[in-house]
Amino acid sequence: MNQENYKLPGGVEFSSITYEDILWQTGVFRYERTGSGRDKITFYWNAVKTKLGEIEEKNWCRLAEALIERENETQLLKDLIQWCTEHNYVKASAAEIRKDALQLHVARFFDDPQWIDFIPFNKKYRPEVLETANIVFVRNECCQKVGPVTQEQIDRSHAGTIACPFCGRWSRYIVLGTRLRPEPLDPCWDCDCNDPDMGCTMPSIDKSYACPLGSTDDKQMEVLDE
Ligand SMILES: [Zn+2]
């Protein structure tokens, strides 16, 4: 994007704009008619309402990308695009995915613990973010497996339900425990046998081949063998 040639609404300088300024408030559909009779032509375009004013959608995308580049967050955008591509259940086009990722990026969803993908996304791309997160272990009715969510997701639970950390469905849940900080991230997260109260519950006979850590814990084995 050629920043010098692109006029921002209200004559704002590109160097002074922030993510908040261009936060996608709503998408709007616009048209304009010119000429009359047979020469009548109608132009259509999509626009985005922002704090700065209305910006044509394709310009909004270019502007968002330029801002991300200015903030040295191009890699983070790439990660978001990859994430959205891997979770593209509605079969959106590549251009739509890119637009969705730009919206998520500008709104800084990856920093919001209420975002349903906050834990899995950051676990994959920014594990350091999770070190200070408020992690709660729950078991949802649907999958009956122990998994992590954030306290903030529990705080905004809807009618006693939260999004299941395994299947994403909103279902009833029970809280099993809270991660104590600054305890390091539990390396057993990916393992269905991890229980926040009991620790590893994998039978010792399976550990040698099924444990992602590949270690054995004698004390734990004794308890389980009883
Ligand atoms: Zn589930």
What does this structure look like?
With 226 residues, the protein is an alpha+beta fold. It has 2 domains: 9-107, no CATH class; 134-214, no CATH class. It is 32% helix and 22% strand. A 4-stranded antiparallel β-sheet has the order 5-4-7-6. It has a 3-stranded antiparallel β-sheet with strand order 1-2-3. The longest helix is centred in the first third of the chain and has 14 residues, at 57-70. It is elongated and about 80 Å long. Bound molecules: zinc ion.
Quick tags:
4-stranded antiparallel beta sheet, disordered C terminus, 8 helices, binds zinc ion, elongated, 226 residues
Question: How would you summarize the topology of this molecule?
Answer:
Layout: E1 26-34, E2 41-50, E3 53-56, H1 57-70, H2 74-86, H3 94-106, H4 118-125, H5 127-130, E4 135-140, E5 146-150, H6 151-155, E6 161-163, E7 170-178, E8 194-195, E9 199-200, H7 204-210, H8 218-225
Antiparallel strand pairs: 1-2, 2-3, 4-5, 4-7, 6-7, 8-9
Helix pairs in contact: 1-3, 2-3
This protein binds zinc ion.
